[in-house]
TrEMBL record, chain A:
CDD domains: fer2, MopB_CT_Fdh-Nap-like, MopB_Formate-Dh-H. Residues 939-966 are annotated as: Disordered. It comes from Pseudodonghicola flavimaris. GO terms for molecular function: formate dehydrogenase (NAD+) activity. Belongs to the complex I 75 kDa subunit family. This is Formate dehydrogenase subunit alpha. The gene is fdhF. Residues 178-209, 223-251 form the 4Fe-4S ferredoxin-type domain. Signal peptide: none annotated. Residues 258-314 form the 4Fe-4S Mo/W bis-MGD-type domain. Residues 100-139 form the 4Fe-4S His(Cys)3-ligated-type domain. It holds the Pfam family Molybdopterin. Keywords: 2Fe-2S, 4Fe-4S, Iron, Iron-sulfur, Metal-binding, Oxidoreductase, Repeat.
From TrEMBL, chain B:
This is Formate dehydrogenase subunit delta. It comes from the Bacteria. It holds the Pfam family FdsD. InterPro entries: Formate_DH_dsu (IPR021074).
Length: 966, 82
């Protein structure tokens, strides 16, 4: 019996990917082993702890069989097959060691090493190099090959021969990527990078050029380097490279790490698990953790490389205060800042009433931190004025899925995509916004699943290497409900419904009312074509494919929610899945792609003003009682203010004080001028953040925040997966964010004494049924848990609504299309829609402070050639973008990705302030702002607008900090 | 702006929000649309927002959809101490 290996802690490379077949038993070196059918001999050997030497194989990639280092002998078979490409057979008898295979392996290594510089001692991979390990493993002692006397150099690693002539085979290092370097002289052409780029990432940026001795790894087309190629800097090739050829620059600079901590990425809602690899308290690199269940060993450029903001000199490490926002900041100690803040907030409540202050929780902070911030409002301010930036992204998901299914969450885990046959992506751009999920999706599409994209813009997925959308419905912005309802019309009228599913799982009367509603000819694709811009035949074909193409899965994003009918579209999407029975098994479902890392968690934790943790309305006395007992206070039974209501109330003088943790509402919320007016009207704005963000221009108290590297806690990703965040270095400003909130609460008279976030989780579990079974111990044991985790699901719930909907019967909702009030006209004839790109993250506060700016140093406006031409705009020109709310300037990018009549931009840079343009229209149910539709005009311009200039002057003035007093 | 001054103006945004809500529920089946509008507002609006829309409906009401006006009697306006 070999050693028992705890699976989630196992970081060994098993050589080839895991398989799921029926069990096959064989004998390796006299030991019996049983593995799933399809497993390689190499992996079977690894299962019993035998590492067969290998170079071109790694368990994240399909076996390739090129190096021949992994040869073995199999009884009854001639020759020495490669163990990585040989599948197991019942009764097979394998010998991994014999004189014969030893000799072959030594010969292979000798050949490799003869064309390799013997630089190990000064090499960045020293100690972390598979070539080095294999030379050791096969017992390589000497290399007999030598360059022929006086002949040309027959190697790739010497720039010049001894007489100084250039070696034509030698290639210089490519340092164009800011995060990793490519040194061709150390390349063994194992092809792992090329395959990683294809199989794992799906970008196909790398190829092998040439043949035999001349073959080289090459990014892009001839003349390209890594930066100019299609490379998206995901790091998969670096991860796969067995040598120093593709190497993180941080390792080249700092050396190899000596310890590591498993933690969770703090960027997007995919929630990738990473190994933070450290030297003492210095971060050397972040590598994707292969047992992370969201990412399965993959990463994107943000999580993998863009962590430099955490140690950026712009970070503010001392608390600061000021009496009014035209004064410079004054640095003070924690105690002074907290008592200043507490006195002001209490004073405001005394003067203007209990409801005159509130909080904004962060979707970037941990669950524990968010829980404490909403608790601050409810238990210390004694009101329900708490909201979170999920308001501006996924609040309609909460409402829409709550109404139809009974709970606000995606129905599947990410693994589910592996069983999908048809994937419907609506208003989301996974390859940019949720890159690791995007890669997993593309992998499934390359295996043959079909793709439907519903988006005004031709996102990359529509057409990328080896991926073609079967249908792209380029609808006019603002017509989602009409399109989704027309899809339902086709499904109902063409008899494509799954009636037995509906009969069993949904309310039949509601279904019949709904069917009657959608069957009305006014919802037919022919009737709505003029409105939506989607050709009827295309729409019909789409509906048929989704309904009858096998397992149909819907993934949607902010292009669905950020509309005045956001909630209605979410309900329409929920209807589609119920109509077709695409619910409750792998490969199907309805999945919101969450923007920020902890959007799901911040909603779960009761950040919304109308509900306590676990989505329970504050009006319910039995729910209030639980928290009243736990907190020893009386809880206000009335819902509080949402962010936009807070700002409206502030302008009207009814709302005076705000504690805003880890959010930049001034940059991220719509109608910047209105947000600024609201903030300016407040008497105490407390900003708790890493940087002096845009909101801080209007703040009176600044409390330094801690990055995700500096604290313990949990994030919950888009799959409802609770992942651990682990402290890898001490908080730079002295306190983790949860400690600061606790100190503020105590300064206002509370008596909280948590000494570790696990105690906060215990309080959450004790009060919130869907978290009842969650503990840090269980998280450490299992790696992660998907809520609900309770008595009936002690290990969590990967898939929701399996035997029935959470609310009982699924509820069909009528989804009548209502045109938005934001309409184009002669003054504003174009529709602006917004989005984001891979390398930058939201308001960019983090990514702008990393080398990622190399890929996106400014926001640009995408405009169709036709619209550009009639306005006399050329590519790269400065243009003025104006709406009813305001105007700004930015550069034009002429592209047919957008349809005529539609323009598009990102919102990552404060100089652009795309939100000066957006209006204050919002979703009817949740007030989620309508970012995705704004009527605009575009005209040539020669510089920044007056607003931009006034804004930067105010920002500069407001950011002054007095030198610390002696 | 002081709250009193603010009260003098018609609550433009609240009117628009209430009308949007009414538009949705107007399309829903059953005879209880006005109650559904009131329930939604009771569940999601802060009491002071509810007080304002009710006061506006009582004083003037111009610009409010008939379904909002029908819902007003069912909108709860709690006594607020502070
Ligand atoms: S890549 Fe590996 S074998 Fe080559 S010099 Fe570096 S450490 Fe040595
Ligand atoms: S970093 Fe990613 S995208 Fe770039 S070449 Fe490597 S695998 Fe391909
Ligand atoms: S996909 Fe999202 S969670 Fe994963 S590394 Fe990238 S930003 Fe982080
Ligand atoms: S590892 Fe099997 S051939 Fe390279």
């Amino acid at each position: 019996m070999k050693d028992f290996i705890i699976p989630w802690d196992d970081t060994r490379d098993m050589g080839t990917p895991e398989k799921h077949g029926k069990p096959v038993t064989l004998i390796i070196d006299g030991v019996e082993v049983t593995v799933p059918e399809g497993t390689s001999v190499m992996r079977a050997a690894a299962e019993i702890g035998t590492q067969i030497p290998k170079l071109c194989a790694t368990d994240s990639l399909d076996a390739f069989g090129s190096c021949r280092l992994c040869v073995v002998e199999i009884e009854g078979r001639r020759g020495t097959p490669a163990s990585c490409t040989t599948p197991v057979h019942p009764g097979m008898v394998v010998h991994t060691q014999s004189d014969k295979v030893r000799k072959i392996r030594k010969g292979v290594m000798e050949l490799y090493i003869s064309d390799h510089p013997l630089d190990c001692l000064t090499c960045a991979a020293n100690g972390d190099c598979e070539l080095q390990d294999m030379a050791g493993a096969v017992g390589l002692r000497d290399v007999r090959y030598a360059a022929p006397e006086g002949g040309a150099l027959a190697n790739h690693f010497e720039a010049r021969n001894t007489s100084g002539e250039a070696n034509p085979e030698w290639l210089p290092k490519d340092d164009s990527n800011p995060y990793f370097s490519y040194d061709p002289s150390k390349c063994i052409v194992c092809n792992r990078c090329v395959r990683a780029c294809e199989e794992v990432q799906g970008t196909f940026a790398l190829t092998i050029e040439g043949r035999g001795f001349d073959s080289r790894v090459s990014p892009g087309a001839a003349g390209d380097d890594f930066l100019s190629s299609d490379c998206v800097s995901c790091g998969a090739c670096v991860q796969a490279c067995p040598t120093a050829t593709l190497q993180e620059k941080s390792v080249i600079e700092m050396g190899t790490p000596d310890r590591s901590v498993i933690t969770t990425c703090a960027y997007c809602g995919v929630g990738c698990s990473f190994k933070a690899e450290m030297q003492g308290d210095q971060l050397v690199r972040m590598t994707p953790w292969k047992h992370g269940k969201a990412n399965r060993g993959h990463s994107c450029v943000k999580g993998r490389f863009a962590y430099g903001y955490a140690t950026h000199p712009d970070r503010i490490l001392s608390p600061m205060i000021r009496d009014s926002i035209d004064q410079p900041w004054r640095e003070v100690g924690w105690e002074e800042a907290l008592s200043f803040a507490a006195t002001k907030m209490r004073g405001l409540q005394e003067k203007y009433g209990r409801r005159s202050v509130g909080v904004i929780t962060s979707s970037r902070c941990t669950n524990e931190e968010t829980y404490l911030v909403q608790k601050l409002a409810r238990a210390v301010f004694l009101n329900n004025n708490t909201d979170t930036c999920a308001r501006v992204c996924h609040s309609p998901t909460g409402y829409g899925l709550g109404q139809t299914y009974g709970t606000s969450a995606g129905t599947q885990d990410f693994d589910s995509i592996e069983a999908s046959d048809v994937v419907l992506v609506i208003g989301a751009n996974p390859t940019d916004g949720h890159p690791v999920f995007g890669s997993r999706l593309k992998k499934r599409l390359r295996q043959g699943a079909q793709l439907i994209v519903i988006d005004p813009r031709r996102i990359d997925l529509v057409k990328s290497p080896h991926v073609r959308a079967a249908h792209h419905l380029a609808l006019r912005p603002g017509t989602n409900v009409a399109v989704v309802t027309a899809l339902a019309h086709v499904i109902v009228t063409e008899g494509l419904c799954d009636e037995s599913f509906i009969k069993e799982r949904c309310d039949w009367d509601e279904f019949q009312q709904y069917a009657e509603f959608v069957a009305d000819p006014r919802h037919s694709p022919e009737a709505t074509e003029m409105l939506t811009g989607v050709p009827a035949a295309e729409l019909r074909a789409t509906a048929r494919l989704y309904a009858k193409g096998g397992n149909g899965a819907i993934y949607y994003g902010l292009g669905v929610t950020e509309h005045s009918q956001g909630s209605t579209t979410v309900m329409g999407i929920a209807n589609l899945a119920m109509l077709t029975g695409n619910m409750g098994r792998p490969g199907v479902g309805v999945n919101p792609l969450r923007g920020q890392n902890n959007v799901q968690g911040s909603c779960d934790m009761g950040s919304f003003p109308h509900e306590l943790p676990g989505y329970r309305h504050v009006k319910l006395p039995e729910v209030r009682a639980i928290f009243e007992d736990a907190w020893g206070v009386e809880i206000d039974p009335e819902p509080g203010l949402r962010i936009n209501n807070m700002l409206d109330a502030a302008v009207e003088g009814r709302f005076r004080g705000l504690y805003c943790q880890g959010e930049d509402i001034l940059q991220s919320d719509p109608d910047t001028k209105h947000v600024a007016a609201g903030l300016a009207a407040m008497e105490c704005v407390i900003v708790h953040d890493l940087f002096l963000n845009e909101t801080a221009n209007y703040a009176h108290v600044f409390l330094p925040g801690s990055s995700f590297l500096e604290k313990d806690g949990t994030f919950t990703n888009a799959e409802r997966r609770i992942n651990r965040v682990r402290e890898v270095m001490a908080p730079k400003a002295g306190y983790a964010d949860w400690e600061v909130t606790q100190l503020l609460a105590n300064a206002m008279g509370a008596d909280w004494h948590h000494t570790h976030p696990s105690q906060i989780m215990a309080e959450i579990a004790a009060t919130t049924p869907s978290f009842a079974g969650v503990t840090y111990d269980l998280l450490d044991q299992k790696g992660s848990i998907q809520w609900p985790c309770n008595e009936t699901h002690p290990e969590g719930t990967p898939m929701m609504h399996v035997d029935g909907f959470v609310r009982g019967k699924g509820r069909f909702m009528i989804t009548e299309y209502v045109a938005t009030d934001e309409k184009t006209g002669p003054r504003f004839p174009l529709l602006l829609t917004t989005g984001r790109i891979l390398s930058q993250y939201n308001v960019g506060a983090q990514t702008r402070r990393t080398e990622n700016v190399i890929w996106h140093d400014q926001d640009v406006l995408e405009i169709h050639p036709h619209d550009a031409e009639v306005r006399g705009i050329r590519d790269g020109d400065w243009i003025r973008l104006a709406s009813r709310s305001g105007d700004t300037t930015l550069k034009a990018l002429i592209t047919d990705r957008v349809s005529p009549g539609v323009v598009y931009t990102t919102f990552h840079h404060p100089e652009t302030q795309a939100n000066v343009i957006t209006t204050d229209y919002s979703d009817w149910a949740t007030n989620c702002p309508e970012y995705k539709v704004t009527a605009v005009q575009v005209s040539p311009s020669n510089g920044p607008s007056d607003w931009q200039e006034a804004y930067s002057a105010q920002a500069e003035k407001s950011r002054r900090i007095l030198p610390a007093a002696e | 702006m002081s709250p009193d001054q603010a009260d003098a103006n018609p609550p433009r945004k609240l009117i628009a929000m209430a009308n949007q809500i009414a538009t949705f529920f107007a399309s829903q089946p059953g005879g209880t649309q006005a109650e559904q509008v009131a329930d939604h507002i009771n569940d999601f609006w802060d009491p002071r927002m509810r007080a304002r829309i009710c006061a506006y409906a009582a004083a003037d009401g111009a610009g409010l959809e008939p379904l909002v006006l029908a819902a007003i009697p069912s909108i709860r306006v709690p006594e607020l101490q502070d």
